[in-house]
Amino acid sequence: MTYEVPTTLAQAIEPPAIDYAAIMPLLVVLGTACVGVLIEAFLPRHQRWPAQVALSVAGIAVAGLTLGLYAGGAGAEGVLTLAGAVAVDRPTLFMWGALLALGLASVLLIADRSVEPGGAFISSAVARAAAGGGPGTSGTAADDRDYGSPDQAPTMQTEVFPFAFFALGGMMAFVSANDLLTMFIALEVLSLPLYLMCGLARRRRLLSQEAAVKYFLLGAFASAFFLYGLALIYGYAGSVRFSDIAEASVGSARSDALLFAGLALLVVGLMFKASVGPFHTWTPDVYQGAPTPVTAFMAACTKVAAFGGILRVLHEAFGDTRWEWRGVLWAVAIASMVIGAVIGLTQTDIKRMVAYSSVAHAGFLLLGAMAITPEGISGTLFYLLAYGFNTIAIFAVISLVRDADGEASHLSQWAGLAKRSPVAAYTMAFLLLGLAGIPLTSGFTAKFAVFSAALADGMAPLVVIALIASAIAAFFYLRVIVLMFFNEPAPDGPAVTIPGAFTTAAITLGVLFTLLLGILPTPALEWAAGGVFVS
Amino acid sequence: MTPTYYLLLSALLFSVGAVGVLVRRNAIVVFMCIELMLNAVNLTLVTFSRINGDLDGQVIALFVMVVAACEVVVGLAIIMSIFRSRRSASIDDANLLKY
């Protein structure tokens, strides 16, 4: 067998045309991350936090501006750029906008230094060891001393900002990837910083590091599956471009076993990232162990990115073969909803409870992603936006309820919170109702959009199961509300920290969107329905 | 020599890696098993590149190698940090997060 060898190098390598206007938001976010690394390298320690915060907010603002300018002038059909590796179409633009908005809220939470004095992050285990914390102590006093003189206020480790931006850039690339290779690289670019961010908590370092190890090992395991799926599909279709896979799947001489084995492995990798169903085992541990601002970032933004990728793969590459794979995904969606709702009932830690709720929500989202119709796309996109803001605000409120040991995340500690701090309790109650999907919150509109799309595409039994799962899940949200409002507070219970400007802004943003998307969903639904994928 | 044997070999290597991840207890060994899985994928890609008669698979394999190197950097950093605070790299000892 011989390859066609090009005679000259110029003939071999033809630089692809790049539509810079279309991919500018992506470039700005990744550029911000690179500048953030330089700030870490060259600025003195006390100047880094203000510089990083200013850079982060400016970076997201500029990216949002370029996105808005481009989206205003772009047509509904979308463009392919970078030799077809990146697709910038209406769903991509919507998800980029959602990621930037959710990223802004997360960065504000990460930047806050008022809730945890000096910020929630510390990077160096060496610093901890030097401060006297030996192995086996989950350390409180030792952890609070940081670099610098003891009388100085503890400074925050600011490496977390460039990490967050690299992850955000990876997520944006992931939702716009138009071939499996770009998707894989984007998957790693978004995952690797997240693994590290999980392990940076200032308090409860052992839990945080354990979360990082578990997330890393399982994440790498899942991406190996994704990659093997990629290889098998490459063997089947001779290309990893989505449109070529779709073309090959209707008429290729190769065995279908390659295609479906490849699809199965690919889906395992994607479902892992989206914490769906039986691939969710990392979710509760990592959500509980990671610093709460990072959990908020992961829960909201990773979910958007993962489902953006799932949507595009299922619609673009495997839309024509949907009758073959849909049965399997039915089982996965049912497993996810049942696991999330039933195991969520038994949780005693509020962060784990929200984690199981996110597993149940992933099942609902999968319903929308399986409906290969324009309504399926727009419903899922709207759900992602609504769920993202809701969950970021929930984690922000969770980070406020503290006692001497840090966050008081055990459910019993939340008893009678309404008597101590009515504002926090009412905010939390509203957000929990949003997750449960009560009318006048975004959760209701989102569930309605997704379930009606699934119903229209012939998935009535699945919708019935989803409604039952929502009802079960509503029970454990209501249990927290009852606990907060109708129980007597314990005498040594936790106090609610008065949040600083950043956390207040993030919570306000989350609550506002949860309310607005509930009572005025039309503009967002119209944006979400602005167009379909370009192939 | 038919390329099919290489596909079978790579499937075998991938399975060995996957089983290793599930049964081994040392974080470093688990991580090496994941690397084995990635390299099995590389073999698959190169074989399919040969069967298909184009270079895409080989290019993808190069990308995979770079990503695997990045994963080593991040992974060893995380395992080192947990080893420093626990004096153990066993993933059975990391059991504070449950239920």
From TrEMBL, chain A:
Keywords: Cell membrane, Membrane, NAD, Quinone, Translocase, Transmembrane, Transmembrane helix, Transport
Chief location: membrane
The UniProt record lists the keyword Cell membrane: yes
GO biological process: ATP synthesis coupled electron transport
InterPro entries associated with the record: NADH-Q_OxRdtase_suN/2 (IPR010096), ND/Mrp_TM (IPR001750)
Transmembrane regions listed in the UniProt entry: 20-41, 53-73, 93-111, 160-177, 183-201, 213-237, 257-276, 296-315, 327-346, 353-374, 380-402, 423-442, 462-486, 498-520
GO annotation, cellular component aspect: endomembrane system; plasma membrane
Mode of membrane association: Multi-pass membrane protein
Catalytic reaction annotation: a quinone + NADH + 5 H(+)(in) = a quinol + NAD(+) + 4 H(+)(out)
EC number(s) on file: 7.1.1.-
Any GO molecular function: quinone binding
Residue ranges of every copy of the NADH:quinone oxidoreductase/Mrp antiporter transmembrane domain listed in the record: 177-472
Subcellular compartments: Cell membrane; Endomembrane system; Membrane
Pfam families from the UniProt entry: Proton_antipo_M
Subunit structure: NDH-1 is composed of 14 different subunits. Subunits NuoA, H, J, K, L, M, N constitute the membrane sector of the complex.
Task performed by this protein: NDH-1 shuttles electrons from NADH, via FMN and iron-sulfur (Fe-S) centers, to quinones in the respiratory chain. The immediate electron acceptor for the enzyme in this species is believed to be a menaquinone. Couples the redox reaction to proton translocation (for every two electrons transferred, four hydrogen ions are translocated across the cytoplasmic membrane), and thus conserves the redox energy in a proton gradient.
Family: Belongs to the complex I subunit 2 family.
Name of the protein described by the UniProt record: NADH-quinone oxidoreductase subunit N
Source organism of the structure: Pseudonocardia hydrocarbonoxydans
TrEMBL record, chain B:
Domain of life: Bacteria
Record-given protein name: NADH-quinone oxidoreductase subunit K
Signal peptide: none
Catalytic activity field: a quinone + NADH + 5 H(+)(in) = a quinol + NAD(+) + 4 H(+)(out)
Keywords associated with the record: Cell membrane, Membrane, NAD, Quinone, Translocase, Transmembrane, Transmembrane helix, Transport
EC number(s) given by UniProt: 7.1.1.-
Quaternary context: NDH-1 is composed of 14 different subunits. Subunits NuoA, H, J, K, L, M, N constitute the membrane sector of the complex.
GO cellular component: NADH dehydrogenase complex; plasma membrane
Cell compartment(s), UniProt: Cell membrane; Membrane
EC class: translocase
Family indicated by similarity: Belongs to the complex I subunit 4L family.
Keyword Coiled coil: no
Transmembrane segments annotated in the record for this chain: 6-23, 28-48, 60-83
Function summary: NDH-1 shuttles electrons from NADH, via FMN and iron-sulfur (Fe-S) centers, to quinones in the respiratory chain. The immediate electron acceptor for the enzyme in this species is believed to be a menaquinone. Couples the redox reaction to proton translocation (for every two electrons transferred, four hydrogen ions are translocated across the cytoplasmic membrane), and thus conserves the redox energy in a proton gradient.
GO biological process, alphabetically ordered: ATP synthesis coupled electron transport
